[in-house]
Amino acid sequence: MNHRITLMPSGHTCSAQDGETVLEAALREGFLLPYGCRNGACGSCKGKVLQGRVDHGATQDKALSPAERERGAALFCQARPLTDLVVECREIGAMRDIPVRTLPCRVQTLERLTHDVMRIRLRLPASERLQFLAGQYIDILLKDGTRRSLSMANPPHDDALLELHLRNYGGPFSTHVFTQMKEKDILRFEGPLGSFYLREDSDKPAILLAGGTGFAPIKAIVEHAIHNKIQRPLKLYRGARTAADLYLDELPQAWAREHGVQYIPVISDGKAGDGWNGRRGLVHQAALEDHADLSGFEVYACGAPAMIEAARHDFCGQRALPEAAFYADAFTPAVPA
Ligand code: FES
Question: CA 309: distance to chain centroid?
Fold first, then answer.
């Protein structure tokens, strides 16, 4: 039986399906509550039950003491409603409310998606989960003191493993990943970082512009939007050099078929007669050709700095996109720690 949960002080309401925790129900309906381990061990998700009853589930005393429980506190990652509830909790309004953490992780899988793109899946320690917003990135902390920024390609609700897409540009980290890294290797990272995430308080149609492995955070954003049943129109322009570089292409094809996300792949390096029947040229140029007026849109762009700059310049300059509605994440080289 579903139970209605009212989140205070905002007054937002959500409905918990059978067996769901308060946290799962709130996240599924798009309300960001804080969490850490999702395991009853850290206390990050603690709040108060003001009305109604919960099954507290498996909690550790260091995260929720018996005295706190007595006073109505609960760990929302474990607590399951037994009745309708009114709960007091802190809702996350922006990325500044999510703590940046340094965590160890283990390489779970390495999978070549093309000759020069690797999908890396990372497993966190059993008692940890990383809270983040779809589109954010982490910095891998390297032994020589440099760091390598990589966007998470998995959406926040699917956080058992962190998924990263890495192109081999020949730098030290990508060379290491492509030639020496093995499953079970240990890494350290800091995150989540960055202000590139879907603004969910807007219902404007959004153009998503992804160049190369800039597809990673865009994938997270689209999968998050689908999971949360966000209704605003999404139009994905995806640029690659050749058709073979459109890795995981079956995903955006399925988003288009099953969820109405418009998908326009654009290749820049093909030649006539190469069998490609789709759009050609620069990816931001394709979006420019399709829209005479972008004043009512938001744009989320991720890719090489030249693509981002050209898109910002042309969308805002020629198509009346407000500067404040252009969100971007440009690839930057590894930086010293
Ligand atoms: S106790 Fe860690 S997230 Fe709930």
Answer: 23
